[in-house]
Amino acid sequence: MPSSAPVLVSIHMPKTAGLSFRAALEQHYGAGFAPDYADYPLASPLPQRHAAALEFSLAAEPSAYRQVGCIHGHFLPIKYLLLADYMECRFVTWLREPLQRLVSHYYYWQRSYDPAADDTSSLHRRVVEEAWTLEQFCLAPELRNVYSQFLWAFPLRALDFVGITEYFAEDLRDFSTQFLGINVEPQFANAAEVPAGPEQLRPRLRQQVREFHAQDLALYQWALQKREARRQALP
Description:
- By secondary structure, this protein is an alpha/beta fold.
- Helices cover 45% and strands 11% of the residues.
- It has a 5-stranded parallel sheet.
- The chain is globular and about 50 Å long.
């Protein structure tokens, strides 16, 4: 039977204000906050990352999470889905307009690259050291439909909350009121000094990128509709 204390499972999609959200969660959960950035799914081939997530899910012991209030990080959420059979889990994430996210991700990797860092992913190294252009980055198979890659085999109905990065302050207030019982003030971390958007892509390329990431664009539209329904249901 599920325990009475819910565990918040927060999926940090790259460049969706995940570090800002993490700051709010760390402050609220304190010692009960458990970061999970060990996987970084984009750094490993699909079969390998899928197998690792499923193996973890099958082997995870609910007793290991008795003192955990929140898990947050870069991981495939199916990794923790089976925990919901033994304890109450609430799955949350944030999405950002996909082209905006792509361009932001590209420039973030350019300015944050540290070749000496142990945690720099192999994909990050390739992008910088092979001098990928923005066009190469946006049309790279490894980075196609990032949201959908993270949500592989995970039922969308299991997402209890989907925040929209463009409405971060407003949605953080909605989230914190509903899930934390308080009104959390936003803390902005890791924001670019000069925001970079899809307007940097030529119109023809922009359309090509939109078609290449059609699955994530559809997912983002679904999230916007989910947000609208949530907002309409507020008292």
